Every structure is written in C-alpha cells, then in structure tokens.
User: Which sequence fits this backbone?
C-alpha cells in the first residue's frame, strides 16, 4: 500500500474517529456502571438505558462505516475525485487504503463494543448476548456433552476462530459496499448514465440478493453435510461442528471478499470513467 | 527542448458516443498552450486522459516519456474545472495533503501566495467566495514544481480582478522548462500569454499552431481564428 496515501487517509480520519472511539469507550463505561446499579435496584431504568446505549453504540459503528464508504464514494463520484485520482498512485490504491483504514477503525470500535457488553454482563449478572459466558459455555459443552479432553484449550481455540470469523464477515460486508460503489461508478461512466445514485442503488440491491441467495444455499448445503455426518456411527462433536462452521464461513466470506476486492482493483486500474 | 506530452492516435468513447477521435499531439517543454473548443468538443476528456482519470486501450499517451500512471502523475499538476476540495476542508489540511503527496510542492510559496491574496490558512474552503476558492486551487496547483501543469477553466466565472490575480499566479511560479496547458473559453483574456493554441472540434484536433505564427501568417488574433473555425 502506498505509505503516503495511507498516512493521508489516517490523518484525515483520525480526528473524527478518535472522537467516536472515545465516545464509545465512555458509553461502555456508563453501561458497566449501570450494570452494577441494576444489580442493586428493582428499577428497570438502568437495564433499559443499557439497551439504548448498546443500540446507539452499534449505530455509531455503522455510521462510521458509512462515513468511510462515503469517502470512497466521493473519490469516484464527486469533484474531489479529480484531485485524488490525479495523485501519483495507482487508482486502486485509493480502494486499498480506504478498506485498510476503515477496517482498522471498525475493528477497534467493535472490540471496545464487545468487551463493553461482556463487562456489562459481568457487572449486571444478566445475559445480554452471552459474551461474558462464552468461554464457560464452551467448556461446559465440551466437558458435559462432548466429553472431550482439554476442554479449556478447545474453548479458547473455538473463541479464536469465532473472532476470526466475525472479522472476516465484517471485512466482507465492508468490501462488498466498496465493490458496489466501484461497479456503479464503472456502469454509470461506461454508459454515460447521469443518475449515478440510482445505478448505485440498483447495484446494491442486486449484490445483496446474489449474496443472500448464495449464502442461503450454502447454509443448506452445510446443514445437509452436518446432518449426514451426524447420522454416521461417529457423530460430530460440538467442538468439531463449531470449528467447521467457523472455517466454512471464513473460507466462503473470505473468498468472496478477495474476489470483490480484486475485481474492484482491476476496474480501477484499467477502465474507470468518471 | 524536450517533449513533455506526446499523444498518438488517441481515441475514447462514452458508450456509443465518440469523445476523442484519433488525436495525435505533441507539446514541447517550456510552452504555454491554450486548449480551446466548444462545449462537448472533447477538451475535458483529453485532460482526463492526460491526468490518468480515464484509461483507454486505443492509442498511446506519454508524459515526459512515461505512459500515464504513477510516474507521469508525479510530474503533472492538475487544477480541475470546478473547486474540487470538500467544503469542510481546512486550508491548512490541504497544504498538509499536498506536502505529503507531492515531493515538488513548495509549501512556503503556497503560504506566501495565500497571504498576499488575504486567504487565511485556518479558514475552511466552504467559507471562501468562489473567486477565493478558485485562487486557492490555482495556488496549490502552481506551488508544485511540476513538469506539466493542466489548468481546466481556471478563470471561469470570476471577477476581472480575480482573473488578473489568477493569471499572475499561473505565470509567476512556473519553472523554466515546464509547460502549461490552459483550457478555457476566455480566449481574449489568455491570448497574450500563450505560445501555442490547440482547437478541438468534435473530438478531433483541427488547429495546432504557434500564436505568433498565426498572427504573422494571417494577421488575425486567436479569437478571430477561433470564431472563423467554429462559426
């Protein structure tokens, strides 16, 4: 990645995203404190407030993603692109730098969000999303249901793969938005269509439907395979099931992200009309 | 005298519409070239090809011997036809951006020019008047020590005093062997500073001559020659 362009992207986003991140940290601290309060009171207000703050935090992360997508959109669709695309880097570097910077910020915010939920669950004693008890639940499953050796190690491995899967899914979702912007820009430029936002909307809808159909069918295939294996004399353990699910998601989402990234890169480097 | 820009058999279409039709062109170093033509003649398409915003498989473009790409973009300084900075950009942020991305950017020169014109570096682009924003864009473009400057409509829609200032900025900082291409409809404002003129009509170059030669051969001004060609 062009280092200068990367530094430029970071410099231009650091102020706004640092503020968002600090707000997110403050929100999570408030949730943790409210969790403690909710344990000692019969009032619903602290737990309701936790829910509202959690929703706001999630929306904040989504908004940050939209801001980053808009930055890329401006390069391909607005006058700002004239200056950016004339910079001494390959056109596809703008895509690469945007994706890398966006994912770093999103991962940081998401990590703060998840850790915040986990700590809130610990202080409140309530199961919000089961984050705090994930490790314990896996150990219990592997010890009681699967009767596996080294359940603690296996629980850690499963959590690592769960985190990796989540990171790949987030990356794929973001890259698919960037890909939609690139494709829409190419189509509207190639056929000289003025309603560029209309083209973008149609591309997003088509892309979403293709992904939904593909992933839905994949899910059915996965279920079919697992059911067949479970009917065999040696059925799958929870541990194996979870790992296979995670690895399948990583492969499928990962490959689709790579494909969209590479196609987008080719479009940007060879044939891009604004 | 070396060749800064060389285009051979360059063509480009938008769908079925042919924007550039087999253009061949050469611009030598140290020249100020005017690019003229009616709206839709292909001026902006040609500029986009020179700046690398459009790539086309038909024909070849080289800038200082390099095909259009990272190396050529490093020696081309481009000012688009509209103010291309986000309204929420601070001028100091733009100076940082140019300083980071271009080795040949002279920040002190840019800051001095801005100060001369009364434009503060702590201001936001959105708060500037149209004329000031255009001047800002020209200052940032011309504060680079590039080999080739491309200015698309630099004096369009600004008051006469701002026009004078912009022309002064355009010519004030140019290194000796660098060339400038100015695309504008304001022929009479710019004629005096030009070395060469290119007329482009329906995607084809119909005229490319030295302005002095034109005057000596025909006794006509560039504006008269333009009117004759495009009447």
Assistant:
């Amino acid at each position: 990645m062009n280092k200068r362009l990367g530094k430029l992207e970071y410099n231009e986003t650091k102020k706004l995203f640092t503020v968002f991140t600090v707000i997110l940290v403050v929100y999570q601290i408030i949730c943790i404190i409210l969790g403690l309060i909710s344990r000692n009171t019969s009032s619903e207000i602290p737990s309701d407030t936790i829910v509202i703050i959690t929703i706001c935090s999630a929306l904040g992360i989504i908004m940050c993603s939209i801001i980053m997508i808009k930055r890329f959109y401006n390069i391909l669709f607005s006058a700002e692109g004239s200056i950016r695309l004339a910079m001494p880097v390959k056109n596809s570097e703008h895509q690469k730098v945007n994706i890398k910077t966006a994912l770093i910020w999103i991962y940081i915010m998401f990590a703060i969000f998840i850790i915040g939920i986990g700590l809130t669950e610990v202080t409140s004693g309530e199961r919000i999303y089961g984050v705090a008890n994930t490790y314990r639940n896996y150990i219990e499953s592997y010890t009681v249901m699967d009767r596996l050796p080294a359940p603690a190690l296996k629980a850690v491995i499963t959590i690592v793969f769960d985190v990796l899967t989540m990171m790949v899914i987030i990356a794929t979702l973001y890259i698919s938005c960037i890909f939609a912007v690139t494709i829409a820009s190419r189509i509207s430029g190639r056929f000289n269509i003025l309603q560029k936002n209309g083209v973008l909307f149609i591309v997003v809808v088509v892309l979403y439907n293709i992904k939904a159909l593909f992933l839905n069918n994949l899910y059915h295939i996965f279920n079919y395979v697992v059911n067949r294996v479970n009917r065999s004399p040696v059925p799958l353990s929870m541990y194996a099931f979870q790992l296979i699910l995670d690895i399948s998601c990583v492969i499928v989402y990962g490959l689709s992200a790579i494909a969209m990234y590479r196609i987008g890169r080719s479009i940007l480097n060879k044939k891009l009309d604004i | 005298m070396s060749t800064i820009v060389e285009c051979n058999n360059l063509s480009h279409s938008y769908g079925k519409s042919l924007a550039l039709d087999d253009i061949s062109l050469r611009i030598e170093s140290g020249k100020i070239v005017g690019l003229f033509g009616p709206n839709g003649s292909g001026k902006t398409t040609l500029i986009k090809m020179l700046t690398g915003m459009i790539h086309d498989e038909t024909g070849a473009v080289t800038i200082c011997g390099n095909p259009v790409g990272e190396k050529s973009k490093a020696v081309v300084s481009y000012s688009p036809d509209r103010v291309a900075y986000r309204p929420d950009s601070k001028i100091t942020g733009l100076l940082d951006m140019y300083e980071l991305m271009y080795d040949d950017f002279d920040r002190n020169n840019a800051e001095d020019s801005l100060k001369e014109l009364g434009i503060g570096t702590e201001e936001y682009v959105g708060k500037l008047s149209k004329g000031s924003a255009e001047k800002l864009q020209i200052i940032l473009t011309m504060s680079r020590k590039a080999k080739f400057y491309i200015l698309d409509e630099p004096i369009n829609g600004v008051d006469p005093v701002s026009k004078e200032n912009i022309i002064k900025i355009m010519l004030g900082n140019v290194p000796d062997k660098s060339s400038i291409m100015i695309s504008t409809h304001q022929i009479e404002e710019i004629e005096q500073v030009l070395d060469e003129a290119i007329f482009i009509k329906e995607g084809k170059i119909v005229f490319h001559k030295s302005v002095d030669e034109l005057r000596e051969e025909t006794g006509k001004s560039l504006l008269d020659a333009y009117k004759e060609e495009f009447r």
